[in-house]
Write a structure and sequence with these properties.
single chain; mainly beta; Immunoglobulin-like; 2 domains; 4-stranded mixed β-sheet
Length: about 220
């Protein structure tokens, strides 16, 4: 197999996301809600931020968008434990310089904390968004030709060496370039996968990790 040559640049901007939690849980099983306020740098309210709750046991996924006051409410949630994502890019549909984050201070779902929802409301699940970071680069082959269609994945690692995918991921363009934006400040390991997790079967290239490494352990 031919090997990929990868040029990687990281733009690290300052930014963290802070949450305040005041969760009330009722003993009766019915439906409840998650609500809060999303603000940005200098405590300016942030409208049009997509807030999504993911149920652990029920598999329920529900999304609300912050209003002009930065407030949101996700209603009619069955009793469960939920992981909550604050995405100012709304899955890449909105241009934003703010970082995606999961409750609580985490860059991915693998490390996200849980919010309990019962028959009453779970209020005060709020966020303070700050400026994001970006990872970008160019993928070429050993002939220095640009390679299109290579999937680029980010991983984070915790103290137990448990690796997690980080959203969003991306695919290289016709000129071999890629950009992953709206990232929380953290340390990431980067995977370049020409097969896109096995969905492409005829690629002549081998999978690689930054910087020119064969696996996550040495990335």
């Amino acid at each position: 197999m031919r090997r990929l040559s990868v040029m990687l640049s990281v733009v690290a901007l300052t930014g963290l996301l802070a949450f305040g939690v005041d969760t009330g849980v009722a003993s009766a099983a019915s439906t409840g809600s998650i609500s809060g306020t999303v603000t940005g740098p200098s405590s300016v309210v942030e409208p049009n931020v997509c807030v999504t709750a993911y149920g652990y046991s029920t598999g329920v996924t529900a999304t609300a968008t912050t209003d002009n006051s930065g407030d949101y409410t996700i209603s009619n949630l069955p009793a469960d434990s939920y992981q909550v994502e604050f995405d100012p890019s709304c899955n890449g549909t909105i241009s934003s310089t703010l970082a995606i984050q999961w409750y609580q201070y985490e860059p991915d779902v693998g490390h996200a904390a849980y919010v309990a929802v019962g028959a009453s409301n779970s209020a005060g699940i709020s966020a303070l968004l700050q400026t994001a970071s970006t990872i970008s680069g160019t993928v070429t082959n050993t002939s220095s030709a640009d390679v299109q269609g290579v999937c680029v994945y980010l991983f984070t690692v915790d103290g137990s060496d448990e690796y997690e995918y980080t959203i969003p991921n991306t695919v290289t363009a016709a000129n071999g370039t890629y950009t992953i934006s709206n990232l929380q400040n953290d340390t990431y390991e980067v995977q370049f996968d020409p097969t896109c997790t096995g969905t492409i079967t005829n690629s002549p290239y081998a999978m690689q990790y930054y910087n020119d490494e064969p696996d996550l352990g040495t990335a």
